[in-house]
Amino acid sequence: MKKLSMVLMVLFLGFILVACGSESSSDGGEVEGEANNGEGLDTNIVTIATGGSSGPYNIIATTLAETYSSEFGVNSRTQTTGASVENVNLIDQDKVEMAFTMSDVVSQAVEGSISFDAPIEKVNQIAALYPNYVQIVTTEETEIETIEDLVGKRVAVGDQNSGVEVNARTLLEGHGITYDDIDVDYLGYAEAADGLRAGQLDAAFLTSGLPNASLLELSETLDIRMVSIDPENVEEIAQDESYFVALEIPADTYGNAEPVPTAAIMNALIVHADMTEDDVYKLTKTFFENLDALGNSHQAATDISLEAAQEGLVAPLHPGAERYYNEQNGE
Known about the structure:
Elements: H1 2-24, H2 33-36, E1 45-49, H3 56-72, E2 75-79, H4 84-92, E3 98-102, H5 103-111, E4 123-133, E5 136-139, E6 154-156, H6 163-174, E7 183-185, H7 189-197, E8 203-205, H8 213-221, E9 224-227, H9 231-237, E10 244-249, E11 260-272, H10 277-289, H11 291-297, H12 319-328
Parallel strand pairs: 1-2, 1-3, 6-7, 6-8
Antiparallel strand pairs: 3-11, 4-11, 5-8, 5-9, 10-11
Helix pairs in contact: 3-11, 7-8, 10-12
């Protein structure tokens, strides 16, 4: 009887310990309360669609995903993709929660134009980010100096239906150039750089934040030239495509002695519209509170600021992000 009593006592104490442990868990499962001060999320997964593995989207988003995992105890990770158009479609298909995209593609998605047969209603925006520079690169062996010189050349325009390809096509058409006038290759950053290095391409579009890792590496092993776009032409195109702005690639970015005039498009951080207001509020807050870490992961993120985040929005602002901005503005 004494042995039976001891066994029952041990079982009882074990039950008490398990019950206490369950009560300390913030989600009924793993105990995450101490790691995130109880500020968990309604969702357990935050997948962030990015772009190519070597691009700024993926580099910045990897740091962001690690931050979300640490802060909220969720499964947050990046998904490398063909970039902007695919990212919007992944949100529409309920396959990812967040994505980095170019504003021109988001604008088309909301309108249901060009790359989209109908308006995409599941896309909300968290913030306008940093400018993506249209970086057209050739080699010193060619005579290509301006975008007009691409006629008759073999040109990589980005992965098919990527943001790079969409704005490359728009800019070419704005200069009276169609795909019939050039020999098109659908290649991402790394593949385009390899094609230039191998002499299989005359030029390539690598639209991204500065600097582009693939282009930076290429500049260290090959004599390259950055191709210019006339600012007046950019301003004329922007009358119809308002997301374009005229900017310059600074001198010495890729060994270029002088600044190179080109076009740029703001990037956008978008989110699934069905995510809860509380979740998006917390994700937005954590994003801005960790801008230093994001800037350390890639220089392009140093151009992100809270002050400019609501300028040039091209999709409906998610209520959770709006709540964060209102809080920052003292409303």
